[in-house]
Structures are given as structure tokens and as C-alpha cells.
């Protein structure tokens, strides 16, 4: 019995050491927490960056990835998930790392170029083969027989972006006429047949359950979907005016100090702005800042008037308070139906 | 009523049409809701051939997820085996104030949604939690690493063994054990030679259920895991991750593994249940004899 027990304990300890440690041994480790649909993107970038880093320093890297909804990731980081860098799809989720976690300084967005957003996207439409409802721009979405599918702005950043994009279009078109803007938004919301809780769910509704004429989501996602079904089953429509969706990144000061990865984490994020990395990002259907890559991919990313949050709603804080909070504009417009 | 006078006793629901309608409905529901989805998992997993299935299962991260899941179950099951048996022994062999309350408390993990359980652990043992904040000073990390996953899994599965044992041990009573005491056996000897053989099958049944749930737990683990691929991703979380990636075949390959474990569990459960009824029947015949 005791020898068996010993065997069991040794076995468990061995198992524990196996699963407590990353699978590959390397000189240094880095943990990147990211949003749910960025796994393939960062799997590719990690290989790219590891090669660069080894060339520069001779050190081998083991970069781990963690993916979930970016709000959940932010919560986990605040509760002690010791990530070195956060690469999210919502500015507000990085902000709370400062406001609620005290893990990064307030001016995090100024530490890297373009508001610490190495790539960006916008909101676009996916329509069915041949674009039977002839959807070209936002005002086509409120034609009588058009049914929309989008994630719920209450629960999903993706849905919030689509709402703000529609608002931006209305502001651009109607100027100061608040009544017309409200009535357009109300019309727009009343055409949404299914509000899914997240982006992936909305995609399933549109593609697998075959509901709706238009799916509203990130341009990057829309392009991915069109690529996936390359027999032309779906077509991409990029509206003339849309929202500037930033994909902010930051290193997490508190944890990189503990993990002694400050130099590595900074280099990992700064390298995202190099031409090669930007080309890789564009390959995953994100818009990038590098001029050369921009020209190379111009046919894939048509010219869009991109409105940032400051122009549409002043600030994220303001947008949340005015539009998405309980009893806010979103609730009012849906109730008035 | 006059039908009772007839030689063939028939009640209202006994007409053949209703009988077959009920059987047909039950069958349709069972096929539509249980059997077809199960078959779909295996069908989809094999959709691209055995080779692809093997490739998906032998992926470095899938293998790690399988290993981690088995490791968590290997820790959870013995812990809950000991805990459940001790608890059942305590509440069925002793009378003390708060005993009824304790029996009710065992069911908390069943009553609480697993996600809530995960959140509770996170709020308690996370960096800003009561205990977690103190642990940070000693550089002990429970959440977002395997100890956290084991903790919530133990919580979620802890009622199974006790729930199986308590009714049986209540029914069996403590006469045999009392006889042992009178004859001067030590507590450990009574447990080993009298109690354990009596509860053996119920115990195995509880272990089977605990294991099934430990392997399949998603909600609570999802909250405390941190979703780090190759480190804290269990098999159910891995299925979701692959699905998010549009790697449908990979997701179904991993799901088929979980479903396989479930089917195997059912088979063991069926066998154990059969043995258990056997034991109970024997007890009843002995009582009436």
C-alpha cells in the first residue's frame, strides 16, 4: 500500500509539473491575451516575431496565447491572469485595466503610434449571392423587405460598433437634424430580425440558419467569411461611411515587471508596426497604417470615410452613458417602435 | 365501473392507438434529441476521414488538453471519493445538531450554476479577492492555472459520491456495524470489512458520475482557466476554441472524444446500476427472510 501510494503521489507530481509548465522549453516566455477570433492571426504573428527576436538576440521564445471575449479577458487580467500583453478589439476593455485594475498607466494609448492601435477595421455588410436586395449603403438597410442580423449592442462590442456606424452615417447625412437621425436609427433597429449575443453567434444565424439578408459585423470578419465560401455564395459590401474600429494593444506594466518581460513585451507590440508584420495583418483582412502595404492591398479595402468615436459620440465613456446604458438612447429607440 | 367487471381489465389509456402514440412520441423524442445529435458528433468528426481525425487529435494543443483534462479528473475523483464517503458516513451513522442542514448543504453545487461557482472562486481567490490578495504576497497563484481548475471541478462534482451513498447507507442501517463494535472491531476494520463491501457498487456509481462530470465541466472551468492554449485549456474549452476558429472538423474531433468518454461512462453506469439493484434485492430478501 505505501509503495503504491508513493507511486501515485510521484505520478501526480509528475503530471502536475507537466501541466504547470508550457509544452516547449525556450529561453523566455510571453503570454498574449487576446479576443476570441484572433487565434490564427496571432499564431502566425508569433512565429514571425519569434524568428525576428531570435535573429536579433539569439533567444528562443515560447509565446502563449489566451483567447476569449475581450471583456472577459480584461476581467481575468484584473483578477490575476498574469498576461504580459493585451491585444483587444475594444478600447474600453483596455481602459478598465487602468481604471479598475490599476495595472497600466492612464496614458497607455499614447505609448504606441496610432492610439496604440497597430491595425484597424470597420463595419461592413455580408449579403447573399448576387446581392438580391441591392444593398450598397446604410440607407439600403431600411428598405421595406430587408432583414438584418447583428450582435446585440448591449452585450457585444461588435454590435455596439455597428450601432455607432449607423449613427455616424446618419450624422454625416442629416447633420444637426437630431429628429431625422433618431428616426433613421429607429428604422434601422426595427429591421434587425435577430440580435445575437456575440459576433460568432450572429455569423451562425446568418450562414447556418440562413436568416436575414444582411449580416453586420467587422469588415475583417466579413472578408474572412467571403473567402471561406469562395464560390460566391456571399458578397461583401463596404458602405461609403463607417466607424473606425480600433484594435488597441498594451503591455501590462504590473505583470511585465513581475515576469521580467518588459523589453520583450514592448518589442512584441512595436514590431506589429513594421512593414512585414503589417503585411501579415493585412493578410488576415485588417486595415493597416503602413503606406506600402496599404497600396498593395488597396483593391481589397475600398476607400471609406471612417469616423472615429470622438466625432460620433465624443468619447467611449460618453457613448456608453448616452447610448448603451440602461434607459439610454438604444433602449428609448427600441421602445418607441 | 363496469369495465372492472369484464375479464380483461382495461383503463382509459390502454387503447392500442394511445399506447402506440405514446411509444412513438417517446421514441421520436429520444431519437431526435439524444441519438441523432450523438451520431452527428461522430459523423462530423469522421467527415474528412480517419486521417484528418487522427491529425486533429494528435495536434500538440489537443493532446495537452486531453492530458490536462485527465489530470484534473485524476485529482478530483480520489478527493471526492474520500470526501463523499466520509460525509455519507458522518450523516448516516451519527446524530448531531445541524445534521439535516449539512445534508442540504451537500446539494449546493447542484443548485448553483457552474458559472456562478467559478465566479465565486474567482472573487475569493483572484488577485483582488479576500484570500487571493493575501496569496499574491506569497507569490501563490491558484486562479488561471491548474490548481484553480481542480478547485472548481472538485466543487462542482463533490455531491455525486455522497448523494449516491446516503440513501443506501440509511436503508442499510447500522446493525451490522454495531455488531462489529460489540465484537470489539476497530473503527477502520468495521469500515473495511462491513461498510465498504456493502456500499461498493453505489460508491463505484458515484465515482463514475464524478468522473464524467469532471471531464466534461465547462462553465466553472471556463471562468477560472484563463484559456491559455497549451497550459490551462481543458478539452471542453478546447472544443469551443476550435469552434470559434471555424475549425469545425477539429472541434468535432475533440467533441467526439468527450462523447466517447460519455458513452463509455454510460456503459459502466449501466453495469453498476444492474449490480446495485442486485445488492438491494439481496438486502430486501434478507430482511423479509
TrEMBL record, chain A:
<dbReference type="InterPro" id="IPR005669">
    <property type="entry name" value="Thiosulph/SO4-bd"/>
</dbReference>
<dbReference type="Pfam" id="PF13531">
    <property type="entry name" value="SBP_bac_11"/>
</dbReference>
<feature type="signal peptide">
    <location>
        <begin position="1"/>
        <end position="22"/>
    </location>
</feature>
<protein>
    <submittedName>
        <fullName>Thiosulfate ABC transporter substrate-binding protein CysP</fullName>
    </submittedName>
</protein>
<keyword id="KW-0732">Signal</keyword>
<keyword id="KW-0574">Periplasm</keyword>
<keyword id="KW-0813">Transport</keyword>
<comment type="similarity">
    <text>Belongs to the prokaryotic sulfate-binding protein family.</text>
</comment>
TrEMBL record, chain B:
<feature type="transmembrane region" description="Helical">
    <location>
        <begin position="20"/>
        <end position="43"/>
    </location>
</feature>
<keyword id="KW-1133">Transmembrane helix</keyword>
<feature type="transmembrane region" description="Helical">
    <location>
        <begin position="102"/>
        <end position="124"/>
    </location>
</feature>
<feature type="transmembrane region" description="Helical">
    <location>
        <begin position="202"/>
        <end position="228"/>
    </location>
</feature>
<keyword id="KW-0472">Membrane</keyword>
<feature type="transmembrane region" description="Helical">
    <location>
        <begin position="248"/>
        <end position="272"/>
    </location>
</feature>
<keyword id="KW-0812">Transmembrane</keyword>
<feature type="domain" description="ABC transmembrane type-1">
    <location>
        <begin position="66"/>
        <end position="267"/>
    </location>
</feature>
<feature type="transmembrane region" description="Helical">
    <location>
        <begin position="144"/>
        <end position="162"/>
    </location>
</feature>
<dbReference type="InterPro" id="IPR000515">
    <property type="entry name" value="MetI-like"/>
</dbReference>
<comment type="function">
    <text>Part of the ABC transporter complex CysAWTP (TC 3.A.1.6.1) involved in sulfate/thiosulfate import. Probably responsible for the translocation of the substrate across the membrane.</text>
</comment>
<dbReference type="InterPro" id="IPR011866">
    <property type="entry name" value="CysW_permease"/>
</dbReference>
<dbReference type="InterPro" id="IPR005667">
    <property type="entry name" value="Sulph_transpt2"/>
</dbReference>
<protein>
    <submittedName>
        <fullName>Sulfate ABC transporter permease subunit CysW</fullName>
    </submittedName>
</protein>
<dbReference type="Pfam" id="PF00528">
    <property type="entry name" value="BPD_transp_1"/>
</dbReference>
<keyword id="KW-0764">Sulfate transport</keyword>
<dbReference type="InterPro" id="IPR035906">
    <property type="entry name" value="MetI-like_sf"/>
</dbReference>
<keyword id="KW-0813">Transport</keyword>
<comment type="subunit">
    <text>The complex is composed of two ATP-binding proteins (CysA), two transmembrane proteins (CysT and CysW) and a solute-binding protein (CysP).</text>
</comment>
<feature type="transmembrane region" description="Helical">
    <location>
        <begin position="63"/>
        <end position="90"/>
    </location>
</feature>
Amino acid at each position: 500500500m505505501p509503495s503504491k501510494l508513493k507511486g501515485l503521489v510521484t505520478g501526480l507530481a509528475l503530471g502536475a509539473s507537466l501541466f504547470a509548465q508550457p509544452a516547449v522549453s525556450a529561453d523566455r516566455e510571453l503570454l498574449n491575451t487576446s479576443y476570441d477570433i484572433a487565434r490564427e492571426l496571432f499564431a502566425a504573428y508569433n512565429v514571425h516575431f519569434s524568428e525576428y527576436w531570435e535573429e536579433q538576440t539569439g533567444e528562443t521564445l515560447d509565446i502563449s496565447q489566451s483567447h476569449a471575449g475581450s471583456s472577459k479577458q480584461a476581467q481575468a487580467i484584473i483578477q490575476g491572469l498574469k498576461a504580459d500583453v493585451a491585444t483587444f478589439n475594444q478600447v474600453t476593455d483596455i481602459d478598465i485595466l487602468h481604471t479598475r485594475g490599476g495595472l497600466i498607466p492612464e496614458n497607455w494609448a499614447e505609448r504606441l503610434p496610432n492610439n496604440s492601435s497597430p491595425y484597424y477595421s470597420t463595419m461592413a455588410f455580408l449579403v447573399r449571392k448576387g446581392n438580391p436586395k441591392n444593398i450598397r449603403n446604410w440607407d439600403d438597410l431600411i428598405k421595406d423587405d430587408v432583414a438584418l442580423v447583428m450582435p446585440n449592442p448591449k452585450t457585444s462590442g461588435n454590435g455596439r460598433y455597428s450601432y455607432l456606424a449607423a449613427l455616424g452615417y446618419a450624422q454625416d447625412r442629416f447633420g444637426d437634424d437630431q429628429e431625422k437621425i433618431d428616426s433613421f436609427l429607429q428604422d434601422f433597429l426595427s429591421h434587425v430580425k435577430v440580435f445575437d449575443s456575440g459576433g460568432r453567434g450572429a455569423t451562425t444565424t446568418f450562414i447556418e440558419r440562413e436568416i436575414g439578408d444582411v449580416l453586420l459585423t467587422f469588415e475583417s470578419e466579413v472578408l474572412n467569411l467571403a473567402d471561406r465560401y469562395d464560390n460566391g455564395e456571399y458578397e461583401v459590401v463596404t458602405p461609403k461611411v463607417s466607424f473606425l474600429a480600433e484594435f488597441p494593444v498594451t503591455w501590462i506594466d504590473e505583470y511585465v515587471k513581475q515576469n521580467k518581460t518588459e523589453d520583450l513585451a514592448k518589442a512584441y507590440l512595436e514590431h506589429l508596426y513594421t512593414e512585414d508584420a503589417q503585411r501579415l495583418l493585412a493578410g488576415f483582412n485588417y486595415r493597416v497604417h503602413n503606406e506600402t502595404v496599404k497600396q498593395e492591398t488597396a483593391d481589397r479595402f475600398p476607400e471609406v470615410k471612417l469616423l472615429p468615436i470622438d466625432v460620433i459620440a465624443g468619447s467611449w465613456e460618453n457613448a456608453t452613458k448616452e447610448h448603451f446604458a440602461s434607459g439610454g438612447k438604444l433602449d428609448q429607440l427600441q421602445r418607441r417602435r | 365501473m363496469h369495465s372492472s367487471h369484464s375479464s380483461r381489465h382495461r383503463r382509459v389509456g390502454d387503447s392500442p392507438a394511445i399506447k402506440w402514440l405514446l411509444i412513438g412520441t417517446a421514441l421520436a423524442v429520444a431519437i431526435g434529441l439524444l441519438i441523432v445529435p450523438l451520431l452527428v458528433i461522430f459523423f462530423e468528426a469522421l467527415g474528412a476521414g480517419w486521417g484528418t481525425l487522427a491529425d486533429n487529435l494528435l495536434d500538440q494543443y489537443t493532446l495537452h488538453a486531453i492530458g490536462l483534462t485527465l489530470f484534473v479528473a485524476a485529482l478530483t475523483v480520489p478527493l471526492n471519493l474520500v470526501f463523499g464517503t466520509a460525509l455519507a458516513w458522518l450523516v448516516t451513522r451519527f446524530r448531531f445538531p445541524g445534521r439535516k442542514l449539512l445534508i442540504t448543504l451537500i446539494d449546493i453545487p447542484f443548485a448553483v450554476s457552474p458559472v456562478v461557482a467559478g465566479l465565486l472562486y474567482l472573487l475569493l481567490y483572484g488577485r483582488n479577492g479576500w484570500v487571493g490578495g493575501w496569496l499574491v504576497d506569497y507569490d501563490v497563484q491558484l486562479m488561471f492555472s491548474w490548481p484553480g481548475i481542480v478547485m472548481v471541478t472538485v466543487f462542482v462534482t463533490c455531491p455525486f459520491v455522497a448523494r449516491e451513498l446516503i440513501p443506501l447507507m440509511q436503508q442499510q442501517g447500522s446493525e451490522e456495524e454495531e455488531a462489529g463494535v460489540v465484537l470489539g472491531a476497530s473503527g477502520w476494520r468495521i469500515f473495511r470489512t462491513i461498510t465498504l463491501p456493502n456500499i461498493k457498487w453505489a460508491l463505484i456509481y458515484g465515482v463514475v458520475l464524478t468522473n464524467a462530470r469532471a471531464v466534461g465541466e465547462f462553465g466553472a472551468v471556463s471562468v477560472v482557466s484563463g484559456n491559455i492554449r497549451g497550459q490551462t485549456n481543458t478539452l471542453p474549452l478546447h472544443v469551443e476554441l476550435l469552434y470559434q476558429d471555424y475549425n469545425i472538423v477539429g472541434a468535432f474531433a475533440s467533441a467526439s472524444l468527450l462523447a466517447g468518454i460519455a458513452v463509455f461512462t454510460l456503459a459502466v453506469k449501466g453495469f453498476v446500476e444492474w449490480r446495485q439493484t442486485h445488492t438491494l434485492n439481496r438486502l430486501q430478501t434478507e430482511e423479509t427472510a
